[in-house]
Write a structure and sequence with these properties.
By secondary structure, the protein is of the alpha/beta class. The chain has 19 helices and 19 strands. The strands form 5 sheets. Strands 1, 2, 3, 4, 5, 6 and 7 form a 7-stranded mixed beta sheet that branches. Strand 3 and strand 4 form a beta hairpin. The relative contact order is 0.09.
């Protein structure tokens, strides 16, 4: 039974909650008061990103997260059986309030219980000693304790940065505002509308989800100021490619151990690996897979020749919000056609740009101006294509022009006097070294985009332009179209023209041509260099790596599909 101080107000009525609604985490109410959009992204869409700030917070909470101590029952506390008690990391809920909280510290003394929430930073010098979101969070913890029969008179915040304790008085105003915030969040979730981003707010500057929320980028489409460079720095983790036949990947401690059939083991910290790609007969252990999935890394399997076989990812996302928008668009034939037009237009634009930039003078200038003019006319016709067949015709005509003159971008001789001959695009199997590299590059690019699409909540297998077929990630192929010239084709040109790959690095077997292991390793090195190249976003003006640029574009595409953005612009550099 709860003992209540007559000088304190009685607990307020619980906010209404439907029976099928889950208990609301008190931490999400904190985020709602701080930024409604942040709370929505974290709780409803299951988004998260670690930063230096969040890592410091995890270290500060390490001791409390381990648990320990013992919280007496309300009856024992009321009788004073445990005059002094302290418990860490206690999960409590209230069905009446519809709230659940993991409380860092609960202190019990002389029949009174006090929740203490731990914060990593220093005490802010503001009225009441703490910011509103923190006060709301610890107040709701106190209300949950009260609802479980404990006598709670006040709450407290502990700031690890300055080692200060701040008392939080449970005033009627604070209780009412805390319960109202919980009710507002619950109502927003039931309505199903993502809150708009904050407008030029200083809160966005250090927000862990700035690169996911894209507040300034979303607002830019509404004629706001140019975006600030809020995007978090590129993740220092890099993809791991294992191409040596017979290699095995295991785990020991916090490291991946790559063991080739012949040669020394290679060790790399797990934290430095963003994702893993395995080529041919390469095996990976269950502990290694589990560790990679825990940190959100995906694993992809390729054939020895580079054919993309499939991918496994962690079950990270808790929401189908993006996929629902994707499926709605897919079943709208008119919208599918509009999206397909934009994809093909962007692809032809970027093919034209690559030709214009890389046409080598020693190959002659004859026909260059005419080819560029014809490709310009083709991409200008894409927005007016009446149906998919007409669009396929425009794409095919542009591809024929592009690949017919692709050799104009290649150096004619390597140091040994051997030539890369290229006449037309062919595959299954590729019949010459250039086509072998194109197929390999497109497979890697497909895997890269499939991983980003999965991370951002899409279904990579359901596309708008590429028809669904067993084993084909249609949406990844869709999104790859504008990037083919900019990434895969550009990497091929760099590798060949710099002499990093030569005609001697290929195997010919009948009509088929395949890359040797050395060629695949060289190509992958150039590919990863290309992905780290900084580019200026043509709309927003800030610089970021090509890898990060892809993610920004796909997140903007998701916002376009769910209706938050009216327009979407593919990346088409000049």
């Amino acid at each position: 039974m709860s003992h209540h101080d007559p000088q304190l107000p009685l607990p307020l009525p619980a906010p209404p909650r439907a029976q099928d609604q889950p208990l609301l985490p008190v931490r999400m109410v904190n985020e709602w008061v701080y930024c409604p959009r942040l709370a929505w992204l974290m709780w409803v869409e299951g988004e998260w990103a670690d930063t230096d700030d969040t890592a410091r917070g995890q270290r500060v909470h390490a001791a409390t997260d381990e648990g320990g101590g013992r919280l007496p029952s309300p009856e024992n506390t009321a009788r004073g059986d445990d005059p002094m008690a302290r418990a860490r990391s206690i999960m409590l809920s209230s069905d009446r309030l519809g709230l659940i909280a993991r409380m860092d510290i609960i202190e019990a003394a002389d029949g009174i219980v006090t929740p203490v929430d731990v914060k990593k930073g220093k005490r802010p010098h503001v009225d009441k000693g703490a910011y509103a979101p923190e006060r709301v969070q610890v107040c709701l913890q106190a209300l949950i304790l009260q609802d479980n029969g404990y006598d709670v008179r006040e709450a407290a915040l502990w700031y690890a940065g300055s080692r200060e304790r701040v008392r939080v008085e449970l005033t009627p105003e604070l209780r009412a505002s805390a319960l109202q915030a919980a009710s507002d969040l619950r109502l927003a979730v039931s309505c199903g509308h993502r809150p708009p981003p904050l407008d030029n707010s200083p809160r966005c500057v250090r927000c862990a989800l700035a690169g996911i929320c894209l507040p300034d980028e979303i607002n830019w489409f509404g004629d706001h100021d140019p975006p600030r460079p809020l995007n978090p720095a590129d993740d220092p983790a890099m993809p791991l490619h294992v191409v040596t036949p017979g290699a095995r990947i295991g785990k020991k401690g916090g490291r991946l151990i790559i063991t080739p059939p012949d040669g020394e083991k290679v060790k790399t910290p797990l934290i430095n690996v963003s994702d893993v790609s395995l080529y041919g007969p390469v095996s990976i252990s269950t502990p290694a897979l589990t560790a990679l999935f825990r940190q959100g890394s995906s694993v992809a399997w390729f054939s020895t020749g580079g054919w993309f076989n499939g991918m496994a990812t962690a079950a990270a996302l808790r929401s189908a919000h993006v996929r629902e928008a994707q499926y709605r668009a897919f079943f709208d034939a008119g919208r599918c056609l509009r999206l397909s037009r934009a994809l093909v237009e962007a692809k032809i634009r970027n093919q034209r740009t690559l030709l214009r930039r890389n046409w080598r003078a020693e190959n002659g200038e004859d026909g260059k101006s005419d080819i560029l003019t014809r490709m310009k006319r083709l991409h200008e016709r894409c927005p007016h294509a009446p149906d998919e067949s007409a669009l396929l015709g425009l794409e095919g005509e542009a591809a024929a022009l592009y690949f017919r003159h692709f050799s104009k971008m290649l150096a004619q001789h390597d140091p040994e006097g051997m030539t890369f001959d290229f006449a037309t695009r062919n595959r299954r199997p590729p019949r010459d070294p250039v086509n072998a590299m194109l197929s390999f590059g497109y497979a890697i690019l497909t895997r890269t985009l499939a991983s980003i699409l999965s991370t951002t909540g899409f279904d990579p297998w359901r596309g708008f332009y590429h028809h669904q077929r067993p084993g084909r990630p249609s949406l990844a192929l869709d999104m790859m179209e504008p990037w083919r010239p900019l990434i895969a084709d550009s990497v091929l040109l760099t590798a060949v023209n710099n002499g990093e790959i030569t005609p001697a690095d290929f195997i010919h077997n009948g009509p088929a041509c395949a890359m040797k292991t050395k060629a695949r390793k060289s190509y992958l090195r150039v590919f990863e260099r290309r992905m780290e190249v900084k580019a200026t976003h043509p709309l927003f003006g800030y610089r970021l790596s090509m890898r990060r640029l892809m993610e920004v574009q796909i997140r903007l595409f998701a916002r376009h599909l769910d209706g938050e953005l009216r327009d979407y612009f593919h990346y088409t550099p000049r």
